Amino acid sequence: MSKVIDFFARRTRQAAAPLSGPARVADVIRGFSIEVMPRTAAKIDSFAELLPRGTRVYVAHIDGTPIEDMVETARRIAAEGFEVMPHFPARSIPSKAALADWIARYQGEAGVTSALLLGGGIAQPRGAFHCSMQLMETGLFDAAGFQRLHVAGHPEGNRDIDADGSESNVMSALKWKQAFSERTDAQMAIATQFVFDAGPVVAWAGRLREAGVTLPIHVGVAGPAKLQTLIKYALTCGVGPSVQVLQKRAADVTKLMLPFTPDRVLADIAAARAADPALQIEQVHFFPLGGIGKTAEYTTEAGASGRAAAYA
After folding, report:
1. Which end of the chain has a smaller Cβ tally under 10 Å, C or N?
2. Domain boundaries 156-175+189-304, corresponding CATH code
């Protein structure tokens, strides 16, 4: 861990130094996943023309979206040769029977065997579920033979869960999920909220390891987008201190209208993994806030070149 801390200390002192390690950046991007919503997916004529075959595609469940629309989106993307991972937001699921129905529909109509389990963004639960642990405790995913279960991670904290600004409740929940992973056959990983600075997520990964949580981490990264768009999403989604990266850039009027890319955060993640080979950051997960096509184009270019000489 000390090597990683030293790396970020040097990065702070030498902010103008050129980035390096294009091969490491390409390795970080390799095997990336991406998130879509039914309404944005509907605008894509062919995912097969944009993404590498087999890419894991998360289908975000926005509260109020009919399950029929969710399943149809999953079916279409799976038919193009992709692993589909729909969201199961606990607070939006009205009952255990409804959960069983969702699982059966996804599996029967779209061949889904992967899921992201999370609490969900609404304040008041629709039914008895209020957290992802309750979804796991039903045993329905195990019974259906789901092969992969991911859970949400919050490297910069989550005040909906820890109102005092600590990470006590979040850490306790992740320890529970670690224990669950040891008694299930499903592969598990933590998919994080998007960040704009690698420092907080690398430090968080170290704290997890010290607490005995060794689940692989898939770091959320925002795809290329206008700065104003990213700031809007960051404020809406409760992104923590790393949003300061955007705010500093916004203060420079010469950069305000330029598209923001995740070059810097990817390069720093790559360097941190090189400094600490045991770091459990496994891959990155793209949030295509500036459009699916733009993010897909970026991953192709960055994966080939590493883009390590560019600053975000």
Report:
1. N
2. 3.20.20.220
- Between CA 187 and CA 165 the distance in angstroms is 30
Residue 251 banded pLDDT, cuts 50, 70, 90: low
**Residue 309 backbone dihedrals phi, psi, to 5 degrees:** -90, -5
**How confident is the model at residue 52, as a pLDDT?**
94
The pTM for the full model equals 0.85
CA distance 195 to 217: 13
From CA 268, how far away is CA 295, in angstroms rounded? 19
Which residues have a Cβ under 8 Å from the Cβ of 12 and sit 6 or more positions away?
Answer: none
Residue 88 to residue 60: CA distance in whole angstroms: 9
Q: What is the dihedral of CA 255, 260, 266, 268, to 10 degrees?
A: 20
Where in the chain are the domains?
A: 156-175+189-304
Tokens 């592969």 -> residue: 187
- The residues near 21 (Cβ < 8 Å, ≥ 6 apart) are 267, 270, 271, 274, 306, 308
The Cα 154–Cα 287 span in angstroms is 15
The pLDDT score that the predictor gives to residue 166 is 75
* Helix count and strand count (H, E) for the chain: 13, 10
- Determine contact, residues 157/183, Cβ cutoff 8 Å: no
The structure tokens listed for 211 are: 């607490």
User: What three-state secondary structure class fits 226?
Assistant: strand
Residue 219 host element (H or E): strand 217-222
